[in-house]
Write a structure and sequence with these properties.
The complex is a heterodimer of chains A (60) and B (312).
Chain A: H1 2-11, E1 18-24, H2 27-38, E2 42-49, E3 52-58
Antiparallel strand pairs in A: 1-3, 2-3
Helix pairs in contact in A: 1-2
Chain B: H1 8-13, E1 16-18, E2 24-28, H2 38-51, E3 56-58, E4 64-70, H3 74-82, E5 99-100, H4 114-125, E6 136-139, E7 153-163, H5 173-177, E8 183-186, E9 189-192, H6 202-206, E10 212-223, E11 235-236, H7 244-261, H8 268-275, H9 277-284
Helix pairs in contact in B: 2-3
Classes of the chains: A alpha+beta (60), B alpha+beta (312).
């Protein structure tokens, strides 16, 4: 669901624009950044917040 | 002939296993890394219906067994299967069928061609006698789906990552995503603690700018794993073996060592514990246990002195 929600939110952006998502540790962090990379988007920054991570993404 | 006159040990050698109901046999079939074609599956099902009771069992080693085949029928059933290229498996003190994951052909994480390795091991070693049962598995990466660490010999694909300073954007994803926290930021560079790295490729596949790249890819050799009565996880041979030929030589030597030194009913791993891992590895690697790479292993270099970035 994380990836789907992230992709839907990215649709609202223009290429080059950025957004932040908060992902749980574990599967979400392992899968979402890689899937975004496959779709041509870029992870800009990862800030750990305990058991979650704030991930800044730039639309490709 | 009645069932009391059968040579059960000889039958076990070719995967024919007497059931509790002594006139019936389970036919344990051969497979390599669990690969079957639909045509073979259809034939197996047909034979199970004609010669058995339509009762099949999928084994823990990714093979198939046909149960309830009467002893007078096992030879006919075997011939019928052979016509479709399905042969018999093995039971008893010998090398069993090779288990394996789908590998790099279809799996996104796959680092090695598991089918190629498994086929080679099958051709070289399957059904050869050993002091006790001997099981081998080939798994594509350290996710270890084929449980290389639970087999007498396990082959696992792996990579050694290298950091490219020029490409790095400093996002910090790698530090947060490495499953063993092997990546650290030291001053202005990212470095790997080689004593923690498990060669899994999560960093290289996740890095958004390809700053982490696989510098080397190869095989991790696991020795002496066993489940069953006395479980023991396999011992890893240090380093990443890049040469397939060297991998095969090491496996040949490990099996030969086991044949020479293993006691009856003693699994390879328990033999290793009895004799001592250092002595066993010295012999199997021919004294080269710290050099299972084309150059000195990274894990021999002190952490602070390693060059983890490309360039001069």
């Amino acid at each position: 669901m994380n990836f789907v929600k992230t992709m839907l939110a990215l649709e609202e952006l223009d290429p080059g624009e950025r957004m932040e998502v908060v992902l749980d540790e574990g599967d979400a962090m392992l899968n979402v950044p890689r899937s975004l990379k496959n779709e041509g988007h870029k992870v800009i920054k990862v800030d750990p917040l305990g058991t979650t991570f704030r991930v800044t993404i730039e639309k490709g | 002939m009645n069932h009391a006159e059968l040579d059960l040990a000889a039958l076990r050698k070719v995967g024919m296993i007497q059931q509790k109901q002594k006139e019936y046999f389970a036919m344990r079939l051969h497979a390599v890394a669990g690969a079957f074609t639909s045509e073979q599956m259809r034939k197996i099902a047909e034979v199970a219906e004609r010669f058995g009771r339509g009762q099949l069992h999928i084994s823990t080693r990714q093979g198939i067994e046909i149960h309830y085949v009467h002893h007078s029928q096992i030879e006919s059933a075997r011939k019928e299967l052979e016509a479709a290229g399905v042969t018999m498996g093995a039971c008893g003190p010998r090398i069993r069928i090779i288990a394996g994951c789908p590998g790099e052909e279809t799996c996104r994480w796959g680092i090695i061609d598991t089918h190629e390795i498994a086929l080679h091991l099958d051709r070289e070693h399957f059904r050869q006698d050993t002091p006790h049962k001997f099981k081998m598995a080939v798994t594509g990466c350290p996710h270890n789906c084929a449980k290389a660490t639970e087999n007498d010999i396990g082959v696992m694909g792996g990579i050694e990552p290298i950091w490219d300073r020029a490409a790095c954007s400093g996002c910090g994803l790698c530090i947060n995503i490495c499953p063993t926290r092997a990546i650290e930021k030291i001053d202005d560079r990212y470095a790997i603690n080689w004593s923690k790295c498990i060669n899994c490729s999560i960093c290289t596949s996740s890095c958004p700018v390809e700053a982490w790249k696989p510098e080397r890819r190869g095989f991790i050799l696991w020795l002496g794993g066993t489940m069953g009565k006395i479980p023991r996880l396999a011992t890893r041979l240090p380093g990443l073996i890049e040469s397939k030929e060297r991998l095969y030589v090491l496996i040949d030597r490990a099996i030969e060592y086991y044949r020479r030194n293993g006691r009856k009913k003693e699994r390879f791993g328990h033999m290793i514990d009895r004799i001592g891992i250092d002595k066993v590895l010295e012999e199997i690697t021919d004294g080269r246990r710290h050099q299972e790479t084309n150059r000195p292993s990274r894990s021999d270099v002190p952490y602070e002195l390693r060059q983890d970035h490309a360039g001069p």
